[in-house]
Amino acid sequence: MKLLKPLWVVGRRPGRAVSTWSPLATAFNTRPSTQPLFNNFKERTGLFCKPELVSFEGFYALKEQAVEATDRLIEEATNNPTRPMVEIFDELSDTLCQVADLAEFVRIAHPQSHFASAAEDACISVSGVVEKLNTDRALYEALRDSVKKGTSGDKHLAELFLFDFEQSGIQLDAGPRNRVVALNDLILQTGQRFMAGASKSRKVPRDIVPQNVRQFFSTEGDSIVVSGVYAECAEAAAREAAYRLYLAPDRHQHELLTTTLEARKEMAGICGFRSYADRHQHELLTTTLEARREMAGICGFRSYADRAIKASTMETASNVRQFLDTLSHNLHDRAQVDFDQMLAMKRTESHQDSLQCWDTPYFTHKAKTQLLNVANSDFSPYFSLGGCMEGLNMLCQELYGISLKPEEMMAGESWSPDVYKLAVVHHTEGSLGHIYCDLYARAGKPHQDCHFTVRGGRRLPDGTYQNPIVVVMLSLSGGHRGGPALLSAGAVDNLFHEMGHALHSMLGRPAHQHVSGTRCATDLAEVPSVLLEHFATSPQFKVLLIMFRRAIPKGGPSLRAALPNREPMPEDMLQRFCASKHLFGASEMQLQVFYSALDQHYHSENASSGGRTTDVLKQVQKQYYGLPYVENTAWQHRFSHLIGYGAKYYSYLISRAIAWSIWKKHFEADPLSRAAGEGLRRGVLRHGGAVPPQVLLRDYLDTEITPDKLANALAEELDYHRDYLQAVFKIR
Fold first, then answer.
1. Which residues are in the Peptidase M3A/M3B catalytic domain (predicted)?
2. What are phi and psi of 226, to 5 degrees?
3. Residue 208 CA: distances (Å) to CA of 127, 204, 212, 223, 558
4. Domain spanning 48-169: which superfamily?
5. What separation in angstroms does the CA of 221 have from each of 38, 204, 499, 681?
6. Which end of the chain has fewer CB atoms surrounding its CB within 10 Å, N or C?
7. DSSP string spanning 186-230?
8. What is the pLDDT of residue 473?
9. Most confident of 84-93, 489-498, 611-620
10. Quick one: pLDDT at residue 566?
């Protein structure tokens, strides 16, 4: 099992002036640096208001409480239960997740090592409990029998629990079942090592690096250190050298990946599926792929991809392949136009006659800079953190009737002094949950923007609702000396994206925790976030947001001093900013199709064995991408998403297609329609994963969701943005 009235309403007139910030914007435009002195005299609470977590030792108490509750619930489930089985299983899931999810976040985010260590111990302990449950045949049979008798309760949820069991081979005899357990462990250990190796710098002897590009790299003794592909370097020879050296084949990574893929396939086969969606990096890759392949076979799947995709929007690996093939066909000519324009730029700059993989990021960045006619840093004064949160709050009020209200935290509630707490409040329904915003970089904090569920929502036995608690984590700089943090254009997108996940969690109201909020199919989970990005970048909404994105003068000593001088972003600058985000969109999407197709091929039933992952890469790149493979490189050894998203990397493209379909049908004509917002909330967001995604989307969009329709939706989106680019920049 995976047991794991508005405060401030803004009128719609684009020209309306705002003379002062709202309380929300004021709070987020000031970076809290210390807890108030009087907090020292208050009675302390624990992290997230859990009294046990006044100290790190509380994790041991939480762990023991969860174990005791788990034993009680297992006893209830296997001995004449008096309530529907899914209610018992969901309480079991909630009991374990409330400890595991909280501990996983604290392990990653807490700056104090003793808290992080205690949280890690709790994670390991709860994982051990889950492993035991996954092999508890009596528990599985109790659930299976209740489904057969029709007494399980919510049938869809019961089938999800059964599917979680059967992916681990619980239904098999002891021999194959034990093999699945061993393969799962192999995949976990090998995958962790592969991911660690995927981002490591590469040291090479100085004498193999051309002398004319050595100055672009760091040195360490007699070695050159290559830390990436140097995508934005203006020197073409340095870009080529970095690409070839950083992506040179790594035997260890290859073996690890191949082992993982083989194990996934074997395990899926054992469990009854056709596929699971390949050892230094070479070895790790090989090991991973082989383990996945074997696991899929043991579990009765033809491939690991079939195993991974079964409960998704696409439902089968063949549907995913059809989607990718149709989309690739749609993109071919559109992407070639992008490549031709980049090649023309390269010829002007270097007089070279071929475009290579190491060129596209550089020329995309250069073209955007030229079209914008201003430096990226010139946008930041318009994007104060408080202004962005104010705009987001206005959007929530208009669409859903909810407000984001800053709350003061109790002593001991937070893990860091610069964390904000938001209450999400509906104008008639009251509190929907809380979002903790951990937005600033600090020593030891991962530099990865993400969303964490600390507690899922569910209906409690007394009829009340357990409100969700989530954390949004970014790594912003600034916000010191009384001035607000100023966001880059990319940081604005990331803020809206992660807040999209958080709002999905807040607006979800399923009866069961196991399917709350973002606990839904992977290719559905990104839809709310991608849709929120449409609001952040759509010309219609940007014009409205002009009132929130007022310039903070550079060098201003404080927010108070800056307030009287705020000026709106010039209209031309705003339009260029919106349009430039979609420059060379077809070639970028084709690259994502290539990545997705490679992931599918590695996890398909016809995936080649014997560790020939580079041969597969060459074949897939030739079919799905418009630029040639670079000999003696093994890009897949750096593709860490093969581990975390095994056979599901396509999900972002599907989510983007769904989000565009929603935008066109319900929001394009009036982006701030309350009727459209309520329709989205009640038709999609409130269900979480409680409704099969195909059924949910068919009913909401009033059309069948097919691979071809989704592929065509993405082509339509590209053409829409192309026309907008041409209108703004007068380009052809």
1. 281-714
2. -110, 115
3. 47, 7, 12, 10, 52
4. Endopeptidase. Chain P; domain 1 (1.20.1050.40)
5. 53, 11, 45, 59
6. C
7. HHHHHHHHHHHHHT--EEEEGGGS-GGGGGGSEEETTEEEE-S--
8. 97
9. 84-93
10. 56
Distance CA 512, CA 93 (A): 9
More confident residue, 177 or 13: 177
Residue 193 CB contacts under 8 Å (≥ 6 apart), including other chains: 256, 284
Q: Give the pTM.
A: 0.89
H-helix or E-strand containing 103?
Answer: helix 85-109
User: Are 417 and 34 spatial neighbours (Cβ–Cβ below 8 Å)?
Assistant: yes
434: nearest Cα among 54, 47, 40, 65:
47
What distance in Å separates the CA atoms of residue 22 and residue 391, rounded to the nearest whole number? 10
Assess whether pLDDT exceeds 50 at residue 546.
no
Helix ranges, 564-668 (H) = 571-580, 585-602, 613-624, 641-644, 651-662
Phi, psi torsion values for 76, nearest 5 degrees: -65, -45
Distance CA(31)–CA(420), nearest Å, equals 9
Look at residue 433 and tell me whether its pLDDT is greater than 50. Answer: yes
What does the DSSP assignment read for 497-518?
HHHHHHHHHHH---S-GGGSTT
Which of 131, 114, 97, 105 lies closest to 58, judged by CA? Answer: 114
Percent of the chain residues past pLDDT 90, beyond the cut: 54
Three-class HEC string of 424-456: EEECCCEEEEEEEEEEECCCCCCCCCEEEEEEC
d(CA 415, CA 386): 22
Helix 251-270 with 174-198: angle, nearest 10 deg:
150
Please report how many Cα atoms fall inside a 13 Å half-sphere around the Cα of residue 312, on the Cβ side.
Answer: 29
Enzyme catalytic residues: 498
Nearest CA to 264 out of 241, 283, 292 is that of: 292
User: How many beta carbons lie within 10 A of that of residue 422, not counting itself?
Assistant: 25
pLDDT for residue 16: 37
How far, in whole angstroms, is CA 338 from its chain's centroid? 27
Print the SS3 string covering 395-426. HHHHHHCEEEEECCCCCCCCCCCCCEEEEEEE
Phi then psi for 432, rounded to 5 degrees?
Answer: -110, -15
Domain map (residue ranges) of the chain: 48-169, 200-234
- Phi, psi dihedral angles at 71 (to 5 degrees): -60, -40
- Range with the poorest average pLDDT among 114-123, 220-229, 367-376, 547-556: 547-556
DSSP secondary structure string for all residues of 356-389 = -TTTHHHHHHHHHHHHH-S-GGGTGGG-BHHHHH
Q: What is the DSSP letter of 568?
A: B
Whether the CB-CB separation of 383 and 486 falls below 8 Å is answered with yes
- How far is it, in rounded angstroms, from Cα 649 to Cα 660? 19
Nearest Cα neighbor of 465 from 500, 410, 510 is 510
Please give the pLDDT value at position 10: 30
Q: According to the model, what pLDDT value does residue 194 have? A: 81
Residues 6 or more apart in contact with residue 48 via CB below 8 angstroms = 102, 413, 436, 454, 455, 469
* pLDDT at residue 66 in the model: 96
Q: How far apart are CA 646 and CA 502, in angstroms?
A: 24
Does the pLDDT at position 478 exceed 80?
A: no
- Cα–Cα distance measured from residue 47 to residue 667, given in angstroms and rounded to the nearest whole number: 39
631 residue type, one letter: E
Residues whose CB is less than 8 angstroms from the CB of residue 110 and which lie 6 or more positions away in sequence, other chains included? 116, 119, 415
* pLDDT at 371 > cutoff 90: no
Rounded to 10 deg, the angle between the 85-109 and 137-149 helix axes is 130
| Alpha-carbon gap, residue 468 to 130, rounded angstroms | 22
